[in-house]
Sequence to fold (165 residues):
Amino acid sequence: MKLRIFALGLVPLLFLAGSCDFVRASLGKPTSADIQAVRERLAAEEQARIDSALRAARLLEEQKRAERYSGIPQHRFNVLAGTFKDSLNAISVLDELEAAGVEARLLSIRGGRTSVTLFSSDTNSVALSRMRELASDPSFRWEMCIYDAQREIQAIEQQKISLQQ
Fold:
């Protein structure tokens, strides 16, 4: 009976003493402020991990773009799948080609244009042979031409006539 009275007297005392934090602190347990501080620290650490992953992804994307861009022509004859004033259009075609499993690169040519290069060679016959090989694939749907970097001309009509023969 005395224990019951003591317990009944203790309950109002706990409510008067404050909150659960008072009881938790007196028992050596973390209070709501401690728990909130831990939650904030964990959220900050998680945000730092996310930011780090995003930075790494951006760096990887920049590296991939740099690898896709071959700059100026390294060989005289280049088999092109298109030449664009707007480099975003070139990137779009490049993405389509890569999705189809065709290896391609971006190439900067005279006049500030960007070309999508499928193959490069120092001899016209090798470039023409590769172009015919690509054209013979029924799944390949892009038009091609050979760009002569030395003369800076695209031999479109000549190559189309050669393919028809």
Q: What stands out?
A: The longest strand covers residues 113-121. The chain has two domains: 2-64, 69-164.
